[in-house]
Each structure stands twice: as C-alpha cells, then as structure tokens.
Amino acid sequence: MMSPSLQAEYLVGRVLRASTTGFDCGARSSHINGSQNFGAFVTVPINDDGSQRAIGLIYAIRIDDDPLARELVMAASVDNSTLLDQRENRMVPVEICVINIGYLSDGAYFYNLPPRPPMSLTEVDLMTTDQIRQFTRQTDFIRLVLNARDIQPDELLAAALVYASYSYDSEPERYDFLVNCGRRTALLLSHDLKRLARVLDLIRPV
Amino acid sequence: MSLEFAKVITQVERMGRYLSHRATSMTDRLALAVERLTAADDLEAIHARIKLVRDSVSGYRGAAPAPLPFDEPINMAGTPADVPQPSVLIAADGSQIYPDPHGAALYYLLNIGLFTTFVGQERLPLQATQPTLEYVQESLVDKDGRTITNPTVNTRRTIAEVATLAAQAWHYRTMMNTLHEVPAPIFALHDGALLKFFSPTEVADALQLEAEYYAALRKLHDAGAVAAGYIDRPRSSSVISLLHLLSLRDDEVNDAAVRTNGEIEGVSDADLFARYLAPGQRSAIFTQNSPQNRDNVIKHGADYEIAFFYVNVGAFDAQIARVEIPMWVGKDRRAVASLHSLLLAQCAIQGRRRYPYALTRADELAFVNPAEKHQLDELVRVEMMRQNMQPERSNKLESKGLARADKRSHQLGV
C-alpha cells in the first residue's frame, strides 16, 4: 500500500464529469506539478472495491480565466502576495481532460472502452512505471487513440508513447518498445502514409 | 410584460443629449474651480473664513481645512512615499439577504468577508467569512412591531463590517505585543464612508447602532490601527463648497449664499481633483463641516472627527477616490503618507480597474449570490419540515415565480 506522501505525489485530481469514452478531473492550480503532463497515463477506479479501473491518457489541461484574473494580468507586475492569494485562496480550478484507452479488471488489462465511467470526486492517479510497462506490453490501445475525435490524436499518441518508453530503465529497452509501437501504428495507418510518417517522426528514437 | 424598449429609446437619446450639454457647460465652471483652488494659499485667511461661517451660518456643509495644528495647504498635491513594510492590511466588506415577508420564514442574513494581507512579507493572505443568520422575532421587527426595513439591515451590516475590522485589528495588535514583535502598522480598510448618519426615522434602534459603531471605532483606535473608509467614484462637492465660500466677501456670508455653490455649482470634488491631481497624488486633508462631525467631537473627542482627502489612483487617466479617516489618523503625517502609498499599491494590483485589491477580495468573500440565497431558503424549508412545520411561500411570491419562470415548448400530436 502506498504511503500517504506517495499517494499525494501520484494524485492527479478528482473526477468532475465522466462518460465511458473519457472523463475530466479537477485539481487546484497550486497542486499542479510534473504529474499532470500531456500524454501521461492515469487510472481511476470504476467500482467500489477498486478491482476495476479505467485507464486513460491526459489530452488537455485547462485553466479558466475570470474577470479578476484578467485585470490582474493587465497590471505592470503581479506581486507575490497576490499570486499566492490567487493560487492558494481563490482556488482557480484546473481541469484535466482524459480519454479512456482501456481498463483493468481483476488483474487483467482490456484494450477497449471501460464498462462504466468513474463516479464524481473519485481520485485519479498517475500509473506507476510498473503499471505502464504491463499495460503497454500489448499495443492495442494505439487503435483507440488514433480513432479518437475532438483531440489531437497523433500528438497525443506520440506524447504517450514517449512517456511510456521512460518506464523502461535502459536505452535498448526503450528503443525496442518504441519500434514495437511504431510497427503497430504502421499497421493501423497503412491507408494513410502521410499521417503515418508524421507519427513515426514524432516517436523516432533520438 | 417586459420592458418596452421602443418606448424608452427616445428617452435614452434625450438623456444622452442632456448629459452632453451638461458636460459642455461644466467646462468653464471646472476651470474656474481649478483657478480658485490654485489661488487658495492663505491658510490663515481660510481658517478665519471657516470661523466666520461657523459662528454665523447654520447651513454650511462644505469642507474645512483640518484643525490646527494639523492643517495642510488646501491647494497642495501630495506625492506618495514608500509603501510601509512590513505592515498588515485588513479589509472587510459585507453582503446581506434581506427579510422576505413572502418567504417560508422571516429571517435575514449578514455575511462579512474579511481579507488580511501581509505587506512586505512572503505570507499567504488570510481570508474568512462570518455569516450570521438572524431569525429571532425581536431582531426582525422595530419598536412598532413592523418588519425592519432594508436600510436597517444595511446599517447593521455596516456595523458588523467595522466591528469585524476592529476585532481583527485588535487580534493582530495583541499578537504582536504577546510575541514581543516589532509593532508593524495595521491598516483597517472599510468600503464606504466613515462619517455615518444613523437616521432614527429610517433605521430601527438607530441610537444603539450608533453606539456600537463608535465602540468599534474606539477599538480600532485602541488597537493603534490606521482606519480608513474608501469611496470609489465619490459624488461629494464639499471642497467645491469651500471654494465658493472663499469667493464671497465677509458681508456676503449667509445661509442663502451657501445654499448653492454659485458660479461653480454642479462641479463635483472628483471633477476638480481629476483636473488638479496628477496620477498618484493626494489632496490636502479636509474635514466635513456637518452636525454629525460636530457631535462626534463633542461626544467622543477630537480624534473622532472624520476627515478626508482625495487621491488620484489612476496610472495615466484620472481616477479619483475619496478616503475618509478619523482625525487620530489625520494628525499623524506618517500614517497618512503610509495610507496614501498603500492604497496606491493596492489599486495598482488590478491593472485598469483601480480599486484596492483587498476590498475586491473582501467583497468577493462576502457576496451571496442568488443561487446561494435559494439554497439557504431551501435549507430553511427543509429544517422547518424536520420540525414538523409546513413551510409555505405567499401566493404573491408563488405567482411571481410562475409568471417569471422559463417557458417550455409543448408539441401536440407528436
């Protein structure tokens, strides 16, 4: 079981609204750190005992403005006290948008949409490196990402694959992983060579 | 039936032409007012004229220079000093839900928002709210058994704001003393005038509320706080009245002559100082020659006479605010200078809409929006049902709800 401090480190936010294709979660702007990255793998329970969890990718991070914030940015400078007040007291909410790419059920991973959405205010966590390695052992999730609507699927896929590759410790392992994902992508985009070339460019190991 | 704009539009056009004409005729009067202010540099003569009008005329309600020896040349334009650091700025504002005789139960709510910022320190500003629900019969009716009016609720809210400011100032002063800290200046900022009139005909328990108000001011004084009331877009013309008074000969000073402002009638103090003060500058300190102020001095002492100054908080264009201060602040040059610079710094935070940030936040904390009011009404109804009562709204209110509700479309035969 994770210690509370580690739990906090992995916490992305809490569910605001959800469907089977994805969900939005919210966090305080003061809690934004390196966890909430574009392309990061996240997981959220979809039943009471946590034996089923949806798996998703962060595809958008939004911070809404408000009239007061707009006036503050017009000032010559923003002092530290005001910044602190805006971030810690006014609790500007950050919305993190996630697309579902699979789910975990009783220890097994499935690469289609989860059977139900998570409930409101459920905690959303980052997947650990072990979990990412296990999930991405099969590359079927790439299909769901490439077919997603209303997001930037190619950029998201590239970000997610690069993100996942860093769950492997060694350079050769990362290389093999990216090559494997590239082959799968080539199969799925064999009808659209231009798009395939763009995606492969984005994930090409340096 | 909704507002028929076709019937209003021509009236709006006439209003626009009227305002434009008025603005044009003000130009010459304003120029004259500025000329008179510039020329008013004989402070001794000004004091003599004020003494004359106080001795002979009962109706003069204009400004006077601050009392000796704390007076300043009335045509001065003071530049700001450095922002006092460290210091504590406390701002309070309030909001209310008025009693609704048509609701399920009679009550009113006061919500005070308090915002404390630690100037010159890397400390998170503190925010707090204090909602108070009043439902006991005695607090809802006046001495004649009638439901209290909105002005009464407003006055009680104002008292609560100032009392909260005083309590918070006292708390910080006590803390500094207890911890043997170097005493930092404490600024207590109220939204609105400090010189208040508690009308017995409009406000229930006016005398009691007045006593509570001055008790709060005393607490602020005892805490050593620099208390101030901030008035955005002031409409007063008391300095204009002073300039008009100064233009009269001694034998012309009488009630009739001071009833208007003569050749500079219609010009406001804000108009005058918008022309006179450069961005960041403040006017001299004045006092208001009014029966309330005179009573303050008699009942509470000279320190409780309410004075004021104007400040141009704009960066490029003129934005004039009026700042009211008790004379315990007014006679302390350093306190006034600190207050002046602190207000400018606070107003600068908000870019274009120059208003003290601390007051903006206090207002935001205090504000009760219509959805929250509705939720509170529902809470009250649920609690009444828990207590085996049948909450019912009046037929009038229910009918208004029916007529004002969003309309839905219905289809037949689909």
What does this structure look like?
The complex is a heterodimer of chains A (about 210) and B (about 425). Chain A contains eight helices and seven strands. Chain A has about 210 residues and is α+β, with helices and mostly antiparallel strands. Chain A has a six-stranded antiparallel beta barrel. In chain A, α6 runs parallel beside α8 and α7 runs antiparallel to α8. The longest helix of chain A has 18 residues. The relative contact order of chain B is 0.16. In chain B, β3 and β4 form a beta hairpin. Chain B is of the alpha+beta class and about 425 residues long. The model of chain B has no long low-confidence stretch (mean pLDDT about 90). At the A-B interface, α2 and α3 of A face β3 and α12 of B.
Question: Describe the biggest sheet of chain B?
Answer: 9 strands, mixed
Kindly state the number of beta strands of chain B. 9
Tell me what portion of residues of chain A adopts beta-strand conformation.
Answer: 25-35%
Distance between the termini of chain A: 37 Å
Structure in a nutshell:
The complex is a heterodimer of chains A (206) and B (414). Chain A has helices at 4-10, 67-74, 80-89, 129-135, 141-146, 153-165, 171-188, 193-203, and strands spanning 11-18, 22-28, 41-45, 52-63, 93-105, 108-110, 123-126.
Keywords:
heterodimer; A: 206 residues; alpha+beta; six-stranded antiparallel beta barrel; globular; B: 414 residues; 14 helices; 9 strands; 46% helix; 16% strand
Would you spell out the secondary-structure blueprint of this structure?
The complex is a heterodimer of chains A (206) and B (414).
Chain A lengths: L3 H7 E8 L3 E7 L12 E5 L6 E12 L3 H8 L5 H10 L3 E13 L2 E3 L12 E4 L2 H7 L5 H6 L6 H13 L5 H18 L4 H11 L3
Antiparallel strand pairs in A: 1-2, 1-7, 2-5, 3-4, 3-7, 4-5, 5-6
Chain B lengths: L4 H35 L3 H14 L6 E3 L21 E11 L10 E12 L6 E9 L2 H4 L9 H29 L7 E6 L14 H17 L3 E7 L5 H10 L7 H5 L9 H8 L9 E3 L2 H10 L5 E7 L7 E7 H4 L2 H16 L8 H10 L3 H17 L8 H10 L10
Helix pairs in contact in B: 4-5
